[in-house]
Amino acid sequence: MMVDDERTPPGESGLSATGDPKLWHEFRQLVTDVKREKWRAFNDWVVGRGCEPLPEHCFHNPSHYLHIYGYPLELDYQDIRPLGRN
């Protein structure tokens, strides 16, 4: 799972952190449109097995207890958007 924040370019987009944020939004919208049906089907499957519904367009239920963030700080966007508390 990637941390997606409107202050940074979308992961795996190849878009620059200093580029046009409008392009970031367009890319995010395209990805959302492409994944929409797959997410609905997967969410139905998850709920059908007694689990809580998934957050919209997210393919997992986030944990309230543990998060492992395995990304080098030198390559992260800490100067643009700090991470939340762990």
From TrEMBL:
Residues 1-20 are annotated as: Disordered. This is Uncharacterized protein. It comes from Medioppia subpectinata.
